[in-house]
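Fold this sequence, please.
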Amino acid sequence: MIAALVVVIVILSLLLGISLFYLTRFSVTLLKFEDIISESLDALGESYNRISDILEKPVFFNSPEVQQVITEIDRVRGTFLMIANNLNSDEISSDVAPSEEEFNG
């Protein structure tokens, strides 16, 4: 009877050790992923601010091609904001976020 309990305890201890090993590995992976996302959000924020500054400048050449490029840059800016909003748990006010119509062009 005691031998059976010892065997069960040993098996459960091994399973606990294996579970703790994989739990630790998974936790480290999640922490690394969180750091990567945080760095990516910082980079997206910098790019968003630079693109916003560029879009505020007046355009002196009014060809359709230049207007198309400006429109695409504006869409990229909206995409940056959408990605940042999806990855970030903090809410950004709705007056900053592009509307669905603005995003789709």
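Residues 2-104 form one domain. The mean pLDDT is 79.
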